[in-house]
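Repro case for the chain-ordering regression, as requested:
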Amino acid sequence: MIVELGHFALILALVVSLFQMSVPLVGAERGWQDWMRAASPAALVQFALVGLSFAALTHAFVTSDFSVKLVADHSHSAKPLLYKITGVWGNHEGSLLLWVLILVLFGAMVAAFGRRLPLPLKARALAVQAMIGTAFLLFTIFTSNPFERLFPMPADGGDLNPLLQDPGLAFHPPFLYIGYVGLSMAFSFAVAALIEGRVDPAWARWVRPWTLAAWVALTLGIALGSYWAYYELGWGGWWFWDPVENASFMPWLVAAALLHSAVVVEKRASLKVWTILLAILAFSLSLVGTFIVRSGVITSVHAFATDPTRGVFILGILAVAIMGSLTLFAWRAPSMRSEGVFQPVSREGALVANNLLLAVATGVVFVGTLAPLFREYIDGAKISVGPPFFNLAFTPFMVMLFVVLPLGALMSWKRAHLDRVLSRLWWAAGASLAVGGIAWGLQSGAALLAPVGLALATWMALGVIVELGERAGLPKASAAQAAQRLLRLPRAEWGKWLAHAGLAITVAGIAAITAWEQERILLMEPGEEIEIGGYGLRFEGVEELPFGAPFEVAACEIGQDAFLKGGEGRNFSTALGRFTLLDGGQPVGALCAEKRYYPVAQTPTTEAAIDSNLLRDIYIVLGDKQVSGDAWTVRAYAKPLAVWIWLGCVVMSIGGLVSLTDRRYRVGAVSKRAASGRRPAAGAPA
Amino acid sequence: MKGAVRGTLVALCLVLSAPLPAGAVQPDEMLADPALEERAREISKDVRCLVCRNESIDDSSAELARDLRLVVRERLVAGDSDAEVREFLVARYGEFVLLTPRFTAENAFLWLSGPVMLLLGGTLAWFWVRRQGVMQPKEERIDSSVDAPLTPEERADLDRFL
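-- result from build under test --
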């Protein structure tokens, strides 16, 4: 009954969506206030209906209602509650419903919090949002109905893929979707502005918070996915340039570019046309990503079960959305004028360089991801484009971007002088070169990766510090004055510094782990000791634990496993290898690496043992037991600065969140701004 | 013959489509000579595991990946250069086996896309920036627009809505 209600609510949502995409749009065209005002309640009702539908599906999963086909295929009664819930989006149909839910949530948030938005802009943006909603509701209802019943009802379900029974991956999709779908709001605002034929600084201020929120969620979603791959897939890789990863990385890059160009629109009323184009591209790439993940046209590690009709349907949505918006763009964009002029060497100029490099980097990822498809279509040749290509072709543009970043951040608007900027950064440049030199001296090989990467990370971090120091009035000001000045600075400034510092941290982590990772693959017998990354590692032995064994049996400082991995007893059998980490002969840590077997899904998994701190991860994977004798295959890794990769992402996200709380993005702040007469946030002190 | 091979590959794909964890290089495969082993690892990272979704033979635990890793090592022990080993694999399995596409006429678009986009985009951006700097006199209303990017009409518009 509840299931049918959910299905019915979804169909009603489609009807509301059809209303929302047409009535306000006509109203805005004709200037009919009542019709425009209909957009907000429609968006709220639509959200309530899709929410109801999602709740109904979640209910079916939680109560293990195996008469629902989706639940029978992807859940199991013996699964812990957490994974029954996350199982809702651990499949194509359910994840699509989550996608739609977040889409209408963003619409509802604009309706609820955008009270002061100009009515025509709001009506049009919500109408465009409803067009996307309609397309995806149609897609859900007609090709991917999550509420389909199954008869006869099976006794138990097929279980969620054990790899997905993990907190990292459980929350990876919601964050990613908030990111992907959040970009739809920037898209809707861009299309609304094109229909209106007007883009002004106020518009940029309305759009930026939504883009920022989406970008923060996307950053966290990508980081979660990467960290999950690191500890769960069993060899410590954290980025594979897989098509599905690229599908999330491309919108991230474009959203980053959009955040920077929107600043120029807001502060200098320039780059308007380009910013509109970026807003369209960001969401278009999200749609392309959805297509890549769900159509199966491109070979990928983690594509969903594939179905040609679905692929064709999404391709249709893609074509209409991208071609429609770009046509509108070509028609309306030429009439938009930039007002603020600037010299090539200026903050605006640096942001143009930032946008250019991010766009080119995105282009490289795009071409690389689609090249196999392209070659196969053109001349039938089958080629592979893997990580070595992307590392070679993508990295140079990032290097250029990182070199420009601290310079651009210190430039003044309108016109800057390179020599003056350099004179403020000379010691930072010197220190960065020194760090690069030391890194070069420390390593044995001639590889440039670590020296260059660490020098760039230092360069960006010191750039932030120079800026902080200048804004604080150091060295002239006293410490108290400096602190006071810093605290009074706009939050958007702090957000920028945090985001740039986070980037520096991530870059340092990537450089160090890629260049200096140590690996040992060997056979070990219980009691044997090896050296890894300056530590001793003793293999204590392996315990075999059966299905259902309680978690207390093997306490390995992993108490939270009871909650995360299966309630009272294990829903898997496991071989649990114990290791002791020794520093100077003294035990400093206990590690347990597991080989698990999930009988319901008939899938083995490995659980790496990781001893993590800020300087290095010790990463151990248990392999197979030798046929004769007591020896096991053991892979031990020392990964310097590993956690920096994800720590940097977290810092970047915090930067985004801090920037989001800046008073000028809070609704209504625009009107107060004139009264306060605040200096523009980014003007550098003389 | 070729069809049969492909059929087998497809069947294997179905069995192995999930990313199987761990496995990869086993201790018994490794060469005694560390320099040679290092070269083998480097080559392996660039060779696709043909039955997997998108993994190198260095990362994959599939049987076929193991066979390929052993082939790579055999060739190296026999004295092949890195390029010769790759050549050997391509002759047997086609271009598809290489994760780094070779720079050929057909793949030029792939390798050149980045530099070409940068050049084109850079040139366009440069001329645009120059032109907008020339079109309007330097001092023109810039200072007012820094502090108040909203024109009076825009502000009036906004106030009406607020």
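Ordering looks correct now. Residues 108-135 of chain B form the longest helix (28 residues).
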